[in-house]
Amino acid sequence: MNLRAPVTLLDVAQRAGVSVATASRVLNGGDRVPRPELQERVREAAAELGYTPNAQAQALAKSSTNVVGILVHDIEDPYFAAIANGVMRAADERNLLVMMASTFRDAEREIAYLSSLRAQRARAAVMIGSRRTDADQLARTANEIDAFLGSGAGLALVSQSGMPAHTIEPDNRAGAAQLARELVGQGWRKFGVLAGPEQLATARDRRDGFVAGLAEAGLEPVAVLAGDFTRDGGHAAALELLDRKVEVDCLFAVNDVMAVGAMSALRAQGIDVPGRLGVAGFDDIATLRDVWPGLTTVRLPLEQMGRRALELAIEGGDPRTETYAPEVVLRESTTRK
């Protein structure tokens, strides 16, 4: 059995009639770009010989690979999946390879993954997930971000304001406040809030924005219940609210998956939505297309946010924050009968 020796960069250089250094600059990248005619000769020789560039050599030549990392809190959550999809589409258009990891909302795991991407000389990374409020974890995350950027890589964050990197930030407070005003305008008055974890800034900002919107109408929530930022968290919080026999006529969940869980719990208890209780969420995830009654929510341009995050990470430059305005979408789940 004859095994053909792998084609080397030297083979390509000899076929093209150029130096190995010139062949490397064409195929592996570098600061000095050869003349167009030399580039064409090298690429033709590589194609004829079936040469495959060495990824490690490319990394050394460029000081980075063509890898983009995506760190996401929970890829099962449609909110995060939609943003990650935007990042991946933008990366694909730039012929970048994507590596994705789910941190499961663990700050230590997030720091470790970012450090690993730095060691692998990734070109850029996008971190997607709500900022936590723990000061020590924030400081350690900021230190790793500084180290990552110091390596020459690019970085952008989604929903993690206050860090020394480009940030895509939805205006959660304004969106929740506008939703409150719209619901009051529909005639709802006794609100229960399924608030999510206190340590997540996104959950807290949406809760506070909604409460502020109610205050404009001289109202305050009848009940505020913390719970996991998940479908099961919304389900459990809704059941707890029913067990307390709190008199409410409308529930606001700080994200859509919690709202979907709450609607499931209400349906299992024989409670009509919106006849007995109105329900609203936040995000306008794609899953809502299959939910009935249609869920009133606050729409965010999730895929667009992911695309822009990747663009900022690749562009580099001084850190800046871009804020995205949400839009209230009224559907059947809060239509008064």
Automatic annotation (TrEMBL):
**Matching InterPro entries:** HTH_LacI, Lambda_DNA-bd_dom_sf, Peripla_BP/Lac1_sug-bd_dom, Peripla_BP_I
Alphabetized Gene3D superfamilies for the sequence: 3.40.50.2300, lambda repressor-like DNA-binding domains (1.10.260.40)
Q: PROSITE patterns of this UniProt entry?
A: HTH_LACI_1, HTH_LACI_2
Keywords attached to this Swiss-Prot or TrEMBL record, sorted alphabetically, are: DNA-binding, Transcription, Transcription regulation
This protein's record includes keyword Iron-sulfur: no
Q: What Gene Ontology molecular function terms does this protein carry? A: DNA-binding transcription factor activity; transcription cis-regulatory region binding
Leader sequence residues:
none
The answer, when asked if DNA-binding is one of the entry's keywords, is: yes
Residue ranges occupied by any HTH lacI-type domain in the UniProt entry: 7-62
Q: Tell me the CDD domains matching this sequence.
A: HTH_LacI, PBP1_LacI_sugar_binding-like
Superkingdom of origin organism: Bacteria
> Mind telling me what this protein is named?
LacI family transcriptional regulator
Species name = Kribbella italica
